[in-house]
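User: Could you write out the 3D structure of this protein bound to coenzyme A? I've included everything you need below.
Assistant: Certainly. Input first, then the structure.
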Amino acid sequence: MSFVLVEKADRIAWVTLNRPEKLNALNNEVLKELEQVFADLEHDAEVGVVVLTGSGEKAFVAGADIAELKTLDTAGARVQALRGQAVFQRIESMPKPVLAAVNGFALGGGCELALACHIRIASENARFGLPEVSLGIIPGYGGTQRLSRLVGKGVALDLILSGEMTPAVDALRMGLVSRVVPQADLRATTEKLARTILSRGPLALRSALAAVNEGIEMPQEQGLQYEAALFGLLAASQDMQEGMAAFLEKRQANFKGL
Ligand code: COA
């Protein structure tokens, strides 16, 4: 593993895309490593929250590797899109929260990667964009689908059709990110949020992710049924008893994930 670094501390796994000389652009090797890292983290009982970030202070990820994309033919490009989509789908489907700490350019595949994470926190210098149309292609790693679901069709089409970059402050206004902080505070702010999440009931977190991620793809009536079913299942957990007892006894909950 060389393009994707993993550092684990106190139940948080920091995953850093590490190809700074190419602004952390996603070539096939990076995608392969990223997929393996997330496969491992999914089953790592020592990890409760994953944070994804880019090395350096300039880029989160400046996109799919354009030098690799240029060599693709029709069949190859479709396979490439499906491959990138599969890796990002694995990230979005993680049963534990995945936070993107967006530390700079998040363009093309980099923006799509951030979109696949559950929460996005950006540094003030971050810039978001889907510039694919300026290369004669469209976003192929889920951008046309996830961006429109996240910020609505009108804003998504503005970004996708213009190919323009959006500063973090505007991304916040659009709902593309949920928090913006100075670059120097990005790690601490992300860590603080990760710790807050880690203090919550792990089974509840898992169910909340499933309810939102799967429910958004369902008609609302079906999503409501799904939410109620998960709510019912949690009532059988020790965590629910502990969480409610802790509230009534005015103490911190000690969740076991059972
Ligand atoms: N794919 C491959 N290489 C990339 C890349 C990408 N998506 N983004 C940046 N790089 C490489 C550059 O080619 C350059 O490599 P070199 O030093 O060997 O020439 C290096 O990263 C640094 O980038 P550079 O363009 O010199 O930095 P900059 O500060 O002038 O510009 C960006 C930064 C992000 C505006 C610019 O790199 C850019 O527009 N990148 C492409 C963004 C894009 O279209 N992404 C969507 C891809 S589908």
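The radius of gyration is 19 Å.
User: Perfect, thank you.
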